[in-house]
Amino acid sequence: MSTIARPDQQLDVVLDAPAATHIFTSESVSEGHPDKVCDYIADSILDAHLAQDPRARVACEVLVKDGHVVLAGEITSNATGVDYEAIVRRAIEEIGYVDPGEAFHAKGVTVTSLLSQQSAHIAQGVDTGGAGDQGIMFGYATDETAELMPLPILLAHRLSRLIAEDRKAGKVAWLRPDAKTQVSVEYEGNTPVAVRTVLVSTQHAEDVAQETIRAYVADDLTPRALGTWYREGIEILVNPTGLFAIGGPSADAGVTGRKIIVDSYGGMGRHGGGAFSGKDPSKVDRSGAYFGRFVAREVVKAGLARKAEVQVAYAIGRAEPVSVRVDTFGTGDARAAEAFVRAHFDFRPNAIIERLGLRRPIYRATTNYGHFGRPGLPWEA
């Protein structure tokens, strides 16, 4: 705890010593979660423009509820023939919402477009290589896993991804697209030592018994997802409410950008607040965060720290960042790490875009199961 004095008082600070042992929890969601449905539609629209016009400016927001999909935002692009309704229906079908008995399904939704062009005042700054907005972004890496990701979010994503794979492969016929997972890991200092709790809430067919769902999660899904972290005695919670037959946008509204912690580090690293999906790389909310992750990985890979966090801040229309900071959390030499970063990495938006090759239609592949820690993404190379 800390006490902050008034200006006329002497500052008195008392800090609690960090616990040697603690538990950290992170969550993930499946591609059928209402918010992720929106993210996937937005990134599908982004890719459709970038496929024709690599310099397209896209800021696409999506809202879904029941049988409605609303598109809003700003798009300035030379792409022609981009059929938003067809893109929306294809994205929903790929996710798996195809049951005409539900309010939300690929063939039955009504698509409303409220898209306009990017403001000329913003464009004039971006055209000269400046940032598309002000803001702060964070990148994070830790050596606690081979993927240089925190273990709780890595395992939570594996659970969600395997549920989707089992559903799409027809392995588990009663699975439906919506799902949420959560993993609690015990740490000793900075080192994970055991998985304590796994929570899985998955949408299912109405006629399946809860005992069947639990057997799948406890005996099949969890051991596969946890791998060497699996052991007897882990607390496994399955559909705690007892029933999850109605899910997705038929049950809850979804909006782009509401799963920013799921998308990043599960709460282990800080977040500047900007969402990723639906934004072209001139938006530093996306490109700056991706580059921060790339740089943090390089700091850890260079042996300068066991874990590292990079913060970068921008002003709209300016290319040079306002600030760049590196934190090693006492696991390395922060000054040496910051000197390494300043010597080797150019944080100007156009330099980031060029170095990572971000003007390509690669973003639908980033939407689900984390933007970090997965192979095949340029900032993970």
Secondary-structure map:
Blueprint: E1 21-29, H1 34-52, E2 57-65, E3 68-76, H2 84-95, E4 110-116, H3 120-126, E5 135-142, H4 151-168, E6 175-188, E7 191-204, H5 210-226, E8 235-238, E9 254-255, H6 260-263, H7 284-301, E10 307-314, E11 323-327, H8 334-344, H9 349-356
Parallel strand pairs: 3-4, 7-8
Antiparallel strand pairs: 1-6, 2-3, 2-9, 5-10, 6-7, 10-11
Helix content: 25-40%
Domains (count): 3
Query: What is the overall silhouette?
Result: flat
Multimeric status of the protein: single chain
- In angstroms, what separates the terminal alpha carbons? 40 Å
Determine the mean pLDDT.
Answer: 93
Structural class, please?
alpha+beta
Spans of at least 5 consecutive residues whose pLDDT stays below 50 are: 1-17
Radius of gyration: 22 Å
What share of the residues does DSSP label as strand, in percent?
15-25%
Helix-strand pattern, N to C?
A: EHEEHEHEHEEHEEHHEEHH
Strand order of the largest sheet: 1-6-7-8
The CATH architecture designation of the largest domain is: 2-Layer Sandwich
Descriptive report:
- The chain is an alpha+beta fold.
- The protein folds into three domains: 21-29 and 150-250, 2-Layer Sandwich (GMP Synthetase, Chain A, domain 3), CATH 3.30.300.10; 34-126, GMP Synthetase, Chain A, domain 3 (2-Layer Sandwich); 135-145 and 255-380, GMP Synthetase, Chain A, domain 3.
- Helix content is 30%, strand content 23%.
- The strands form three sheets. Strands 1-6-7-8 form a four-stranded mixed β-sheet. A four-stranded mixed β-sheet has the order 4-3-2-9, covered by helices on one side.
- Helix 2 (84-95) links the parallel strand 3 (68-76) and strand 4 (110-116).
- Helix 1 packs across helix 2 (84-95), helix 4 packs across helix 5 (210-226) and helix 7 crosses helix 9 (349-356).
- The protein is flat.
- Residues 1-17 have low confidence and may be disordered.
